[in-house]
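Q: Got a minute? One more chain.
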Amino acid sequence: MSVLIAMLLAVVVWVGATVMFGYAGLIIGALVGVAVMYAFILALTASGLFAKKGGAAH
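A: Always. Here it is, folded:
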C-alpha cells in the first residue's frame, strides 16, 4: 500500500514540476525517475552481483 502512495506522490510531483518548469521539468523528472528505479533494482539484486566468499564454485 505504501508503494502505491509513493508512486502517486511521485506522479503528482512530476506533474507539478512539469507545470512549473515546462518541458525541462518533464525531461529532468523522467531522468531522475529512471535513475531512482535503477538504483532501487540494483539494491534489490546487489547480493547476486558479487561472488560469494567461501563455498564451492559452480
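A: The first helix runs from residue 2 to 21.
Q: Perfect, thanks.
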